[in-house]
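Run folding on both entries below.
>entry_1
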Amino acid sequence: MGTQKKEANRKVREGKSNDGMGNVKTKGENFYRSAKRVRHLNMYKDGKPQRNAAGDITKDAVFQSRDVPSARIEPNRKWFGNTRVISQESLTAFRTAMAEKASDPYQVLLKTNKLPLSLIREVPNSTNGVKHHHAKMMIETSSFADTFGPKAQRKRVKVNVGSLMDMAEDVDKSMDKYAEKQEQARLLSGRGEGQDEDDMDAPLTMAIEHSFSKGTSRRIFNELYRVMDSSDVLLMVLDARDPLGTRCYSVEKYLRQEAPHKHLIFILNKCDLAPTSVVARWVRKLSKERPTLAMHSSLTNPFGKGSLIELLRQYAKLHSDRKQISVGLIGYPNVGKSSVVNTLKSKKVANVAPIPGETKVWQYITLTKKIYLIDCPGIVPPNQNDTPQDLVLRGTVRVENVENPEQYIDGMLKRVKQHHLERTYLMKGWNNHVEFLEMIARKSGKLLKGGEPDLDGVAKTVLNDFVRGKIPHFIPPPEEEGATDEKIEGRSGRLGEMPKKRKAEDASAAASTADPAEAAEAADDSDEFEGFGSEAEGDEDAISMGSVSDGDLDSEAEDSDDGASSKATTSKTSVPSRSGSVSEKSATAGSKRRRKA
């Protein structure tokens, strides 16, 4: 007798078979024929019914029989033990604990399959969900063609209101909800102040020109959804000069509702084009929602590269069950997604250009054995609060394709301080945007026939200077309630910044001997941000973000008071940090040049 048959017979004798039918014998089963073989042979015999001489069926076949055998349940102790039950008090406590952990951007839920998330997550707006369900069912059961028109199959349309008064009340309620959403969107976009209440009654802003539809096509959004579906971690690249304006709220909402298991990180790129203190305040503000890092993309002198790589390695360790993780880069056009990829790889692997729309399709790049990067084309999420002027000044539209570009110069002048423009173009004395363009045209020699200034060409040049950082500008973060302005001493800043530039110290030193009014004016000028454009790069007195030698951004986890270790189902993720310092070589070279001068 074979070993396998002996083992099978032993399990049958001891009642250890797992099918629950170990003590049931099949007729015809013996040493030579197993029960499976006997049932297989009986299938051929019982394949047809038995009939008498008259042709009537006397015995049904197996597949024709309607007799149901008596059910038999395997006797087991687990049927009489405790089941997986939980009291409402325990469920409420667990729901509260999970809500606290979920609100922390540095807590990651690891094992979701062992948690009753359907009981923990409360469905918001359940009444609206019921209404949406009823509306969907009504549309499916009675289409528009069956309700209206010559082929209508009923005399009266089903309306959920009983009178015109009820319909008017429903319209008022929906209008109030719409007004509330508009106000929230206006506050989120950073354009809440200075807006008139009459703007709500104005028609929706529409991009009439074809150039404003770039980044909103179905092909671009298909590329976006491919990147989001293929990525485990998503890097939303923001412009440090206008983080809220380049933030994709619709993408965040989609990830929050449809893919809460994917991790989202904010990258404040182009931090060298904004003051260090402003970037640090933006990092502190955005870190309360998501892990946030400041970065300066450069192949020769990057900033924040080490912090980002260490953070991605932490996510790779969290998903240690996978061979590799994919990291997708999403965001508005011309925010520097491809530049971030090249910075992480320390070589050019993706095409970059200072114009929007350079990346056409998604691209896979290998960073390490366990980390892959996915570059995505820039998208412009539809937002009715965004005017064509906002899109042009954010750099989402190619300026050379814009018709009548001088109409956007007035809005640009309102966002930039006048002394920055005077310092950039070395002129002063204009009263409006037309005079400003005429002065630049005559100074640079851009004239048409008859000595007329080329306003279109000059306007395009000025807009390109504004978008590419030659003209200093930034949007400061909103002031927090109870926040106090603390003076930063030495290198104690979040980005290793100095509290003031050396010019400010020189101005304060000269204030003791100069006239008080002149000293105050000089101090005010020195406190203003001078920008890091092409003309200011040669100034050794200005300490920019790029001069910090590989110093990285500290994590918001240091500011949080939650020092307790996370539970078994969560894992704490921290943003790595290294203290930044100004390189001695650059300081020495600058001092030598000043001595020669």
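>entry_2
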Amino acid sequence: MHIVLVEDDEVIRETTQISLERFGYTVSAFEDGRDGYEFVAAHGADVVLLDLMLPTMNGASICRAIRERSTTPIIIISARSEPIDIVQALEAGADDYLTKPFDMQVLNARIRAVVRRFITAGTGRMGFSPDEVGSAADAPAAGLGASGTVGTDGIPEVLGPSPGLAEPPSQSPHRSAEGHSAGYPARPHQRPTAGAAQAPAQQQPSGRSGPTEREELGPYRTQLGSLVLDTGRLTVMVDGEEVHLTPTELRVLLLLTEEPGHVYSREKIAYTVWGYEWAGDSRVVDVHIQRLRKKIGARMIETVRGFGYRFAG
């Protein structure tokens, strides 16, 4: 199932996208309201998730524009919780309204519910335009085109019986313990005691000889295995090739490489890199760790479950 997400807050957008993809959805995410609408108009969508306050084109306007040409399910996700805001969004064409902060399990259930209502209405497939209502209603309600088929519970089979309610075996190791929330910082994880935190730092995965040692190549250059940091030029090299990191990604990497093998809690990383207002929000850390792994190699950063991350080199 293809979901289009339009959300201007980077952290909420990226954490929501990652969580939805873990549930098995395909997600196209946009920061700009008009960009999101033009994508839906050109390519369609199975479900559209919209914030209300968006640059260039707000969520209510997008709702009305989509409704002029399609009955695709639309869910508003917004921090605005006044009854007038909810009423106006629903009257603009939204099928559901979810206020921030929200739990990802709840969002997943809302998505499944609007899809179920959509299919039960007799269309049998997603993303059609008003001109197609007649032919769609006459067609057997058995398929969703590229999105998959409809199961006996009225939900596309690509989602499985209940996506996200059980942890898939292939779950990526960097997921936070409370990674099902989005919208605002989640409650802080409990800090482990000093004695408990040291134990996993000494454990090494099978086949590894230990954390990579720091080798100073000069006043500003440090080598850690195949990775070379230049804090003077603010560059990173991996296997002799420069890797382009954002300033935030570089700050995360610099912290982790201060003491290779040391386990840094998510709270410590969030506080050091983003400041007090982000301390306790593990989701923003997980997003940037995932980005770093894609750029420098997944083996460089290890997850210590229940504690945090360490640089392994």
